């Protein structure tokens, strides 16, 4: 769009961005940590059946009581636990690295001064963050399914409603769960990317994202603010547990999906506005 | 610079669209929609058509309850918060209910022969065979009275007319379906706390989709129970079959006639319930054995500290102490009604203000 005479083909740019992100040790460590969590959860539930209960919110407890001897329920529990804090934080970490991290190391200055379309730059960065977020959720889900079947047994899923789903259908439910969780992580990462374009300090992005999630959760707990609740992104996170009900209720999942899409559009729009007006 | 302006315009449009989308999601569905246009119908004809559909048609839906009584009702408030109860029926006596409980689910399946109750928190299944009891129910005189819905409707509306105004108050939408609104309001001389009872009847299937109880001086209904989703049509037969899942503890229960019939009747006989007054200001009066009120309350089911003390102490904390010709008692007020319990065990309750329950207790021997 600007004056660049020869533009690098987009697929090559996207590939190189992904390779660049995946080569960073902190990316690999984060993915490894996400893979270990389901294994620990699976083993500890197999050893001590009641280790998961107590002091948590109702949705998590409801799923936790179903996990014992019901391995296909482990991905639901693990992702339900992770979507409330861990996965959004990891998504924000990558979003923080993408712009603010580059700015901190001075790399962004060159990119902004070079005759490169800033829209394209943001698109490549957003693609990298989104792909890695998806990868994180998929890694967790795949390891959970394996850990569940190996440590807890049962290739069929006994749903919260008391019905038994065959393995293929249970896998379908896990796939739906992955989509639902990924969209929520993308929404947080999009907002984090917008913050990331406004600062030179990646830590600010992480702090803002953590603070935002905590504030949203607290606001969601206050009954007198119930008019505000439908606006909060965190409100739809419990609904991902609906994949363990039978017949599948789509209301909560659809609403969560639409809400996340709104945050996604807002986040990317603000990021776009900031990156084109930013001084080099 | 032209491109920068374009990008900024796109970004602004995106932000506005996102915020608008969020606001749209937050606003209740169907708000501001014009009420549907339906053919006119009189209250008798509407009630008749409701009564003539004795068996529910095949449907699936979600029911939720909003309780704004100003009184904590255990179990009820949870239902509204945790989400809706899901209901399925095939129109031939098979039902499925899914109730949220403690984050899990309680599923009740009536497959026509057996009632299965699944509890996901303890992973238990209760199995109760229908037996002869189910058939006996169908022959109750209540149903035979409804065999002629037209007469029953006329009688019902006539009875209600004595103390109330019955009217069809336009149309609305409940669960996205056009409904008639049947409104029962007390006559002006009735001494009740209720303003009106509003029943929303589905225009097509004539199933009552929602009931709202409105109290005086309250804009929001005190109790609102109704469908939030409703789809009429044949249901998948597998919904009404149940096989206990692997690892579930199954207990079989035989329908206990003594427990259900006689002892409940005994309890009511012991309470000696008598109505006082008529119409909307009917007050139910009765007595509970005085020793019940002073007996020690059991502690909580899980061994945690229970309310402690005897029921009278408990009444003292939730009610207001009053005294009069009847001696001393406690008044418990909710938005829709009042209850008065005296220290010597007289009980009166109704959808009425405090003076009417006091009057009712005073006339008791």
TrEMBL record, chain A:
GO cellular component, alphabetical, reads: plasma membrane
Task: Answer whether the UniProt record assigns the keyword Transmembrane helix to this protein.
Answer: yes
GO MF, one term, reads: ABC-type transporter activity
Pfam families assigned to the protein according to its UniProt record, in alphabetical order: ABC2_membrane_2
Segments traversing the membrane:
72-90, 127-154, 174-196, 203-222, 257-276
Keywords from the named record: Membrane, Transmembrane, Transmembrane helix
Q: Record's PANTHER family? A: INTEGRAL MEMBRANE PROTEIN-RELATED (PTHR37305), MEMBRANE PROTEIN (PTHR37305:SF1)
Q: What is the name attached to this protein's record?
A: ABC-2 type transport system permease protein
What organism is this sequence from? Actinophytocola xinjiangensis
UniProtKB/TrEMBL annotation, chain B:
UniProt xrefs under SUPFAM superfamilies: Prokaryotic lipoproteins and lipoprotein localization factors (SSF89392)
Q: Which organism is it from?
A: Actinophytocola xinjiangensis
- Mind telling me which InterPro entries this protein's record contains? LolA/LolB/LppX, Sporulation_related
Q: What is this protein called?
A: Outer membrane lipoprotein-sorting protein
């Amino acid at each position: 769009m600007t004056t660049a005479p020869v533009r690098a083909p987009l697929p090559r740019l996207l590939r190189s961005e992904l390779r660049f992100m995946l080569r960073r040790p902190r990316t690999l460590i984060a993915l490894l940590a996400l893979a270990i969590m389901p294994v620990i959860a699976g083993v500890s539930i197999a050893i001590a059946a009641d280790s998961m209960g107590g002091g948590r919110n109702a949705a998590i407890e409801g799923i936790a009581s179903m996990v014992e001897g019901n391995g296909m329920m482990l991905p639901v529990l693990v992702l339900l636990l992770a979507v409330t804090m861990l996965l959004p934080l990891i998504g924000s970490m990558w979003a923080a690295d993408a712009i603010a991290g580059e700015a901190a190391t001075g790399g962004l200055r060159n990119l902004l001064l070079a005759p490169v379309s800033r829209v394209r730059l943001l698109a490549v960065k957003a693609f990298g963050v989104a792909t890695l977020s998806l990868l994180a959720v998929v890694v967790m889900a795949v390891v959970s399914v394996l850990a569940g079947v190996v440590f807890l047994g049962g290739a069929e899923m006994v749903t919260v409603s008391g019905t038994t789903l065959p393995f293929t259908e249970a896998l379908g439910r896990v796939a739906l769960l992955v989509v639902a969780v990924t969209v929520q992580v993308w929404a947080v990462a999009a907002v984090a990317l917008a913050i990331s374009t406004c600062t030179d300090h990646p830590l600010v992005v992480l702090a803002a994202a953590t603070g935002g999630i905590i504030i949203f959760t607290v606001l969601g707990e206050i009954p007198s603010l119930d008019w505000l609740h439908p606006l909060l992104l965190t409100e739809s996170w419990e609904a991902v547990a609906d994949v363990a009900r039978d017949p599948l209720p789509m209301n909560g999942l659809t609403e969560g999906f639409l809400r996340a899409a709104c945050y996604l559009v807002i986040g990317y729009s603000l990021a776009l506005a900031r990156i084109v007006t930013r001084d080099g | 610079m032209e491109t920068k302006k374009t990008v900024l315009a796109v970004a602004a449009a995106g932000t506005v669209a996102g915020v608008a989308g969020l606001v749209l999601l937050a606003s209740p569905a169907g708000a501001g929609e014009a009420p549907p246009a339906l053919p006119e119908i009189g209250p008798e004809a509407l009630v008749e058509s409701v009564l003539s559909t004795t068996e529910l048609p095949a449907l699936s839906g979600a029911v939720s309850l909003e309780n704004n009584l100003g009184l904590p009702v255990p179990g009820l408030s949870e239902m509204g918060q945790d989400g809706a109860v899901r209901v399925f029926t095939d129109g031939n006596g098979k039902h499925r209910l899914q109730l949220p409980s403690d984050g899990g689910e309680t599923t009740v399946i009536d497959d026509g022969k057996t009632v299965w109750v699944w509890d996901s928190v303890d992973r238990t299944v209760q199995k109760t065979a229908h037996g002869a009891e189910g058939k006996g129910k169908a022959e109750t005189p209540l149903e035979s009275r409804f065999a002629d819905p037209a007469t029953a409707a006329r009688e019902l509306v006539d009875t209600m007319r004595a103390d109330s105004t019955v009217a069809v108050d336009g149309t609305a939408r409940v669960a996205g379906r056009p409904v008639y609104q049947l409104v029962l309001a007390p006559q002006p001389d009735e001494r009740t706390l209720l303003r009106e009872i509003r029943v929303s009847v589905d225009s097509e299937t004539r199933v009552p989709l929602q009931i709202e109880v409105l109290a005086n001086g309250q804009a929001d209904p005190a109790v609102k129970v109704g469908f939030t989703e409703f789809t009429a049509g044949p249901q998948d037969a597998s919904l009404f079959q149940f096989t206990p899942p692997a690892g579930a503890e199954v207990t079989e229960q035989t329908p206990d006639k003594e427990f259900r019939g006689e002892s409940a009747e005994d309890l009511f006989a012991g309470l000696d319930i008598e109505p006082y007054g008529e119409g909307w200001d009917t007050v139910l009066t009765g007595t509970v054995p005085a020793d019940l009120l002073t007996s020690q309350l059991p502690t909580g089911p899980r061994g945690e500290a229970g309310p402690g003390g005897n029921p009278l102490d408990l009444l003292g904390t939730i009610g207001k102490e009053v005294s009069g010709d009847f001696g001393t008692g406690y008044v418990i007020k909710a938005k829709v009604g009042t209850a008065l319990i005296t220290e010597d065990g007289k009980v009166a309750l109704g959808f009425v203000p405090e003076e009417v329950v006091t009057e009712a207790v005073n006339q008791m021997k």
